[in-house]
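Postdoc handover notes: sequence design on the structure in folder B. Input tokens:
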């Protein structure tokens, strides 16, 4: 955590000090551009088995193969994380916050939070001044560019920060006493994921798992490989979950800028395939793009799929054994009520259909099914993932029970 805090200041302080002739391979001309986006993709191997791999879904890299970089139409809906690789440094304090010792402010939803912004001109010394003991805070945490100052007004129902008055220091969380913040997180709303035809499906990003890493460049190191390219923003949606069967992209808050106060943008395709040298030598990146426009970044998520312990055409199915159906993404709880279970002849036994886990449907029978009888289990398109994106087509499973 301390390293991340240090890197926050590196991203802030060194954003305007990169020599275009150095071996960092970073760009200083124009607005900050997204060079590549890496994410997890589901695919089928040569045997037809489903596998997962991390690929470049946007932008190219000279040493990558076609398997490593391509248009992604089946991004993983579960266990997902993204690495958004930039061509230059951003202001780190616009992307990350530090944790304070207690409640310090109200977040965008009006809920108390222990995380504090860092001012543009703050230095590690400014953090250290507010990381001293509680007793020393009033005399140490003074002046400009302070962090972890109570921002909850007396008019708030909280009436301040748990005993700390408005405008007074709460103190930076520094349990090991090294003068640096113990914990940082991605600033909520700084970078987000949005999906759907009109970006109308917001995907919550987990700030505690997401972060800004201003280290790295376009030179692939021996250790870390493509996932050490940088500078980069690592984005992890809550639970690693994306909505299924939709296009997704990125959104940056206008406050996220480089040292020239220019917003992030993306050219179509990101780093071009013919850019085989340094990014700083690529005409496309030197030409720049419209600050704030990252609409060129897009990928598609795999459709919702569900497989059951019985298959269409099965025979000899046990009369009382529950049926389980597993999905590739968490399901919207009430949507499983749309599943039907019918018999070819006569009434079907009462079936209880519930989610035993977020992605496992359990179908249990109050009374056993009838021997040598054909039944049909139907999962309609109204069975939905947790973002209420439905199955692309109904799943109809007809099977025959065992003799006994």
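Designed sequence:
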């Amino acid at each position: 955590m301390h390293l991340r805090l240090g890197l926050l200041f590196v991203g802030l302080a060194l954003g305007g000090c990169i020599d275009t002739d150095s071996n960092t391979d970073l760009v200083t001309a124009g607005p900050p551009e997204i060079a590549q986006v890496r994410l997890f993709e589901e695919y089928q191997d040569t045997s037809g088995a489903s596998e997962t791999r991390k690929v470049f879904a946007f932008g190219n890299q000279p040493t990558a193969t076609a398997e490593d970089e391509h248009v992604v139409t089946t991004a993983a809906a579960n266990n997902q994380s993204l690495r958004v690789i930039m061509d230059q440094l951003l202001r780190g304090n616009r992307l990350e916050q530090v944790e304070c010792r207690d409640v310090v402010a109200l977040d965008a939803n009006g809920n108390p939070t222990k995380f504090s912004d860092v001012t543009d001109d703050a230095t590690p010394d400014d953090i250290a001044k507010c990381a001293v003991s509680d007793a020393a805070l009033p005399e140490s945490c003074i002046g400009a560019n302070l962090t972890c100052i109570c921002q909850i007004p007396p008019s708030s129902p909280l009436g301040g920060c748990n005993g700390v008055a408005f405008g007074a220091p709460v103190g930076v969380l520094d349990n090991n006493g090294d003068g640096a913040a113990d914990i940082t997180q991605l600033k909520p709303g700084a970078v987000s994921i949005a999906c759907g035809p009109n970006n109308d499906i917001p995907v919550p990003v987990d700030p505690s798992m997401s972060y800004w890493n201003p280290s790295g460049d376009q030179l692939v190191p021996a250790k870390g490989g493509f996932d050490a390219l940088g500078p980069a923003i690592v984005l992890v949606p809550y639970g690693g979950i994306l909505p299924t069967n939709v296009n997704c992209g990125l959104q940056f808050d206008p406050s996220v800028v480089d040292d020239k106060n220019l917003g992030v943008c993306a050219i179509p395709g990101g780093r071009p395939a013919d850019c085989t040298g340094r990014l700083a030598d690529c005409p496309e990146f030197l030409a720049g793009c419209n600050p704030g426009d990252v609409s060129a970044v897009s990928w598609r998520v795999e459709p919702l799929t569900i497989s059951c312990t019985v298959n269409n055409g099965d025979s000899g199915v046990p009369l009382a054994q529950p049926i389980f159906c597993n999905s590739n993404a968490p399901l919207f709880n009430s949507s499983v009520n749309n599943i039907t279970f019918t018999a070819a002849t006569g009434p079907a036994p009462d079936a209880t259909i519930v989610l035993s886990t977020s992605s496992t449907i359990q179908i249990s029978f109050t009374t056993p099914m009838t021997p040598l009888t054909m039944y049909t289990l139907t999962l309609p398109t109204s069975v939905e993932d947790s973002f209420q994106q439905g199955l692309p087509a109904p799943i109809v499973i007809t099977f025959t029970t065992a003799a006994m």
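Context for whoever picks this up: Confidence is low (pLDDT under 50) at residues 10-23. Don't rerun without checking with the PI first.
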